[in-house]
Specification:
mainly alpha, 330 residues
């Protein structure tokens, strides 16, 4: 079979499987209605409300809605443009296509072949499925995670523009979903990985720190940009309370993988085992992004909600790890 025919077969088979899987998730996410109602009210009064206008009883003040930007996009698509439910589904499939093709493009740029990507694709689909409901703000977080991974790998190659491009990307992400914290953490993890690799090679703490000084400054700028929301400084105590809040007794998707179902846990274990196997075949410098995979794997183990983020990171990096290992060569 020619390379071109193989590529077509992969797109048809793997793409069809992914499309079939996400098309079953066609029940509207209930968060959507509150997000859109907030924007409808903002259009009516001329500003974004900081009190809960939908409650019959007193609530906290100010009210911060970390998904207001998602509500704006959904309201514009469905109501202002008059596209309704059809527009909602088009938006979902466009975002989904970007994420899927982004994983493919990223993996092949890292050195993965189409057969390896196809071989791992079904496992990636299985783990990531929970992030593709219709339509939740987390889909935007998966979208921006792909962009962030591209930018950090460009920065790793010495492209100076990459982290400058990250700042406006972060600003948009910040106002769409509380998942922007994923971006902050993964940027910090990437910097930690670079520092560790430099320190491992040079055995000089200060020199290694100097080599990531530029990246640290961009991380600091990223944190400062968190002020640029409609809620200003009120956003910080809100997001802290949101992060530290224990949701596990009330919301199943925030529970550990072993408390959700064994199929997802087994898929997670297999995916980790494959990465660990690749580590026995390659050194750390041949496995860029390993720290990112480790960080997303850890949080996904404790919260099913984050499994789709891990799936995206895993599908971006692992195919290139598997390439040219003994298991694939045989």
């Amino acid at each position: 079979m020619s390379e071109r025919s193989l590529r077509r077969a992969m797109f048809f088979g793997l793409g069809g499987s992914f499309l079939a899987a996400i098309s079953r998730l066609n029940v509207l996410d209930l968060d959507l209605f509150h997000e859109m109602a907030l924007i409808r009210e903002a259009f009516r009064v001329g500003f974004l409300p900081r009190t809960d206008t939908f409650s019959y009883v007193p609530t906290i003040s100010p009210v911060v809605h970390h998904e207001w930007g998602t509500g704006l996009i959904l309201y514009l698509v469905t109501v202002q443009l008059g596209l309704g439910a059809a527009g909602l589904m088009v938006l979902k499939y466009l975002l989904t296509a970007f994420i899927a093709l982004g994983c493919l493009f990223f993996a092949t740029r890292q050195g993965a072949s189409y057969p390896v990507f196809s071989f791992l694709g079904l496992l990636g689909i299985s783990m990531g499925l929970g992030g593709f409901t219709t339509i939740r703000a987390q889909l935007f977080t998966l979208f921006f995670t792909i962009i962030l991974l591209f930018l950090v790998e460009e920065d790793r190659k010495g492209k100076g523009w990459a982290l400058w491009a990250w700042l406006p990307v972060y600003l948009i992400w910040l106002n769409l979903h509380g998942g922007f914290l994923v971006g902050v953490v993964l940027l910090a993890v990437y910097i930690s990985e670079r520092f560790f690799m430099d320190f491992f090679a040079e055995k000089n703490f200060l020199k290694s720190l100097q080599m990531v000084k530029r990246q640290i400054l961009f991380l600091m700028a990223t944190c400062l940009l968190t002020l640029i929301t409609p809620y200003g400084t009120d956003y910080f105590p809100y997001i802290w309370n949101a992060v530290t809040l224990d949701r596990t007794p009330f919301i199943p998707e925030w529970r550990p993988l072993w408390a959700i179902n064994w199929a997802d846990l087994l898929a997670w274990i297999f995916s980790i085992g494959l990465v660990l196997y690749c580590k026995t075949q390659k050194n750390l410098r041949q496995m860029p992004g390993l720290f990112i995979i480790a960080a997303t794997a850890w949080v996904s183990l404790w919260h099913y909600r984050h499994l789709s983020i891990y799936a995206v990171a895993w599908m971006c990096y692992t195919p290139a790890y598997v390439e040219n290992t003994f298991i694939w060569a045989t």
